[in-house]
Write a structure and sequence with these properties.
alpha+beta; four-stranded antiparallel beta sheet
């Protein structure tokens, strides 16, 4: 019977550590449950007021720990741990805790920082796009677009003008080519290969080699690099054309300009700008706020408006009338905001990078770490067999699957288990998810996701082996929920003046109800166990 992906994940040869760590003696038994010294130390060392090597402090903590465990035992005896709310809260915590291990925070921070650093500059570029014939292409479909792009690149580096070539090719009805100038390029807004290529260009005027994206092959020229000026807040008075059949001259450009100039003169001579806007501006979205607009950056307003706004240097400055397709604007600079700090931007960048093609860069360091940990070995010849299928078939096509599932060569080895090509074919058939249109890129995305899924599952299943503190943290949270619930029920929900007596009576009751055994020998040898934990 053919293996499937679930079998692969669940069938790895995992050498999990035993729940009871070797040489981890029992320090205390409460209500029939043994408590290892490692758990005792784990909790004690979190309390900075406890000195386990000082007799009085140790005895005080032993009593505190015993009472804590007695209360947990009482909660379990009342089946608090079987409620739906309890299990929902515990499972939510375990999920969050597992996720914290299924990442490389330092590596992710570097990836986010790289994007943030790109925001320091705003780029302008022109590009010539040699389009693919369809939205889903195999290797043979890209040959003509690449040939045309490479030929145009050869002409450009040979001295011909980039713009002339782009405009000429775009005007040719027989060539599926687009020529475009992009005024502002910001991180995470363009297709990733395009963005990476633009930011890799060092000098204004530099031209990239053909760059493949979902759309086709691009030749990109860097036209401008400016420092990000941040954002502005302005107020404006808009004088726009209105339909007046009795006086059509009201809409003539000279008349509109004259009106705008009059408001400019009144504003610079001291009249309240907000009041002028409130009673005269044609922008109904801002008149109620005295013409005030939300903060905006470059690329968010029509070009003449933002150029005039960003040209002003000092808050309070008022621009002369500026013409846009909406009419004439008189603009007052209210505030300037510098580019947000990394700390302010980090979370929003991270959220965007988790989506689509950027997630591979975000999680690359985690994948590399896990592959090294579990002895990942890649066999490029076997992967090349799958790539050759992309010459004629898209990975989403049934024919691709029918052929790939018959391949049996080892594709990679991880954790001592060998995964054949057919196993990846099964995964690809079940989870054909990628943002890429080109067959080879689509295949590579799904392959990386396949490997990440396997190493992530391995990490989950070996948490206790590689991270002993995981089980202790879960146990601590488990006990903590029960302690809160039982204490609220017995003491904390009662009047404050009664709580001290209720607590004492409760502990006496618990001591009589549950048996407690304390291993004094282990406590005597605690120094040895502390050294072992620290090592």
């Amino acid at each position: 019977m053919k293996r499937n992906f679930v079998w692969v994940v669940l069938g790895f040869n995992l050498c999990l550590a035993n729940a009871q760590v070797e040489n981890d003696p029992v320090v205390m038994t409460v209500a029939g449950k043994d408590i290892p010294v490692s758990e005792f130390l784990f909790l004690a060392q979190k309390d900075t007021s406890v000195n386990l090597l000082e007799k009085k402090s140790l005895e005080s903590y032993v009593e505190l720990f015993k009472n804590f465990k007695l209360k947990v035992a009482e909660a379990e005896s009342k089946r608090f741990n079987e409620s739906q709310n309890f299990n929902d809260e515990l499972n939510s915590y375990k999920s969050q805790l597992r996720d914290s291990y299924l990442s490389d925070r330092e590596g992710e921070a570097k990836a986010v920082r790289k994007v943030y650093d790109r925001e320091r500059n705003i780029l302008s570029a022109s590009h010539i796009l040699f389009k693919f014939p369809s939205s889903k292409v195999v290797s043979k479909d890209t040959t003509e677009a690449f040939r045309a792009a490479n030929e145009a690149y050869r002409r450009i580096v040979g001295g011909e003008d980039f713009t002339t070539i782009g405009e000429t090719l775009a005007a040719d009805s027989t060539a599926d080519v687009i020529y475009e100038t992009i005024d502002y390029i910001f991180p995470l807004q363009a297709l990733k290969p395009f963005e990476d290529a633009v930011y890799a260009l060092k000098n204004v005027g530099d031209v990239s080699r053909p760059v493949r994206t979902n759309l086709g092959f691009h030749l990109i020229r860097l036209d401008r690099r400016i420092e990000n000026p941040g954002k502005l807040k302005v107020a404006h008075i808009l004088i726009s054309p209105v339909e007046d059949p009795f006086d059509p001259k009201e809409n003539e450009d000279e008349v509109l300009l004259a009106k705008a100039t009059a408001f400019y003169d009144r504003a610079v001579n001291g009249e309240n700008f907000g009041e002028l806007a409130r009673h005269n501006s044609a922008d109904m979205g801002s008149v109620g706020k005295g013409g005030e607009l939300p903060y905006f950056g470059l690329g968010e307003m029509v070009r003449p408006f933002e150029e005039a706004a960003f040209a002003m240097k000092d808050t309070g400055e008022i621009s002369r009338p500026v013409k846009t397709r909406y009419g004439y604007h008189v603009i007052k600079l209210l505030e300037k905001a510098k580019h947000p700090s990394y700390e302010e931007e980090e979370r929003s960048i991270y959220v965007v990078m988790k989506q689509g093609e950027w997630n591979f860069e975000l999680f690359k360091s985690f994948e590399d770490r896990e592959k090294e940990k579990f002895g990942y070995v890649f066999y490029p010849e076997a992967y090349a067999d799958l790539q050759r299928l992309c010459d004629d078939y898209h990975p989403e096509d049934t024919t691709f699957y029918n052929r790939a599932r018959l391949l049996t060569e080892p594709l990679f080895t991880v954790n001592g288990d060998t995964i054949p090509q057919s196993e990846f074919a099964e995964y690809l058939h079940l989870y054909p998810f990628s943002t890429k249109s080109y067959a080879g890129d689509f295949l590579y995305d799904v392959y990386r996701q396949f490997v990440r899924t396997i190493v992530s599952e391995l990490e989950k299943r070996t948490l206790s082996e590689y991270h002993p503190e995981y089980d202790r943290l879960v146990k601590e949270y488990y006990d903590g929920i029960l302690l809160f619930e039982i204490s609220s029920d017995r003491v904390w929900d009662k009047p404050v003046e009664e709580q001290e007596q209720l607590e004492a009576e409760w502990l006496k009751e618990l001591s009589q109800k549950f048996e407690v055994k304390i291993n004094r020998k282990v406590l005597k040898d605690l120094k040895k166990h502390i050294k072992k934990e620290q090592s």
